[in-house]
Amino acid sequence: MASISALGVGSGLDLTGLLDQLRAAERQKLQPIVAQRTQEQAKISAYGRLQSALNKFQDATAKLNDPKLYQGLTTQVRGDGMTATASATATPGNYEVEVLNTARAGSVATTRVTDSSAALAGPNASLELSFGDGTTRTVTFDEGATLADMRNAINADADAGVNASIIFDGQGHRLVLSSRESGVDAGVTGVSFAGLSDPGALAEDTAARQAGRDAELNINGITITSATNRVEGAIQGVTLELSADSAGKTLGVTVQRDTESLKEAIQGFVSAYNEMKSTIGRMTAVGTDSTSAGELIGDRVIRSIESRLSRDLTDIVPGGDITMMSQLGISLRPNGRLELDESKLDEAIATNQQAVADFFAGDSKEAGLAGRLEDSMKRFLGDDGLIKSSITSSETRIESLKDRFERMERTIDRSIERYRRQFGQLDMMMAQMNSMSAYLSQQFDIMNAQLGRKR
């Protein structure tokens, strides 16, 4: 008998449908593996979010552990026409700055040239420039150079000390030379041309000379001069920038501790900690189903982190006037979050900023509260820390579950193939039996017909 190519053809039974049901039933064995793999993937994602929140808290903590935060100074200028910037070497104080003069660059202009395209330079033409410090500099020109060529040659000479331009005064063209730097010493004081094709064609117009000038200030009764309008060192650690309209003005400068940046850093510390706690709260929330429950309920890593941070925050910080966060207006609430009393913090910063620095930063990188927390953060976030170890562990379990899933699939495929062969054999047997039944029925019918005719 020929083999049966489709299940159920020989027997008339829905063996294909039965095989599909058996396959579906067998594949139910894969669901626990899929569920475990999904759970581990959700944990990895949650650890990533936790890592991000801890990184933000670590950054906020690092700011408080930086001594520069407590040494920072700010400046305030009363009046317009000047700005002031303080460096770490400045000291707090109040200063009265009277601006007598601002610095300016010197300039000279030449006599007019009617035709700007005319050749002015002879074979050995040159320009000698004189400056306020008594030095001179020489610029040479190519033979046949025009006024524009001379301008270009001067500007191309890095050592010329002046910038050249051409202006038209309504009657002719003039070469204007302006000092590249401001101040008396750098100011150009005179020019002299030599080797011109017409000796009288170009000369200095002494009436159009502007001498270089130093800035002059009176700071708390002391006269200060500066070659530029950027005055450095007159007030230790403070740089003053004068604008053109500051001359004749008396301005006030106050240098003081940068308490605002310190307060913002502490506020950022509290905010980052609370944000991290909110992230942990969502990950450990007990829900009514798998979609609303947190991914890390009962996770030992979460318990370790919360326990360590709580201990870090509440333990006394020895060695200073401030030993507990509560003295700064920071309290740890029953819900695990920090609460900040800004008025109490303002008072602590205003009355004893050094004590605030000692509490957070201490006398070494590890001594204060911030140093203690940074050490904990390294344990959590380091290459061998809790977070990365947990992620690696989940990734390893996912790989193991993947292998288990593939092995189970192969086992199921073998079982289904065995069922298929058995159903095929059953189908063939049923087909043979049906064929035999039809044959016997036919023979019985023939015999009955013969017996009937004999009667």
Automatic annotation (TrEMBL):
Its main location: secreted. Residues 11-105 form the Flagellar hook-associated protein 2 N-terminal domain. It is found in: Secreted; Bacterial flagellum. Residues 391-418 form a coiled coil. Signal peptide: none annotated. This is Flagellar hook-associated protein 2. Keywords: Bacterial flagellum, Cell projection, Cilium, Coiled coil, Flagellum, Secreted. The keyword Coiled coil applies. Required for morphogenesis and for the elongation of the flagellar filament by facilitating polymerization of the flagellin monomers at the tip of growing filament. Forms a capping structure, which prevents flagellin subunits (transported through the central channel of the flagellum) from leaking out without polymerization at the distal end. Residues 212-435 form the Flagellar hook-associated protein 2 C-terminal domain. Homopentamer. Belongs to the FliD family.
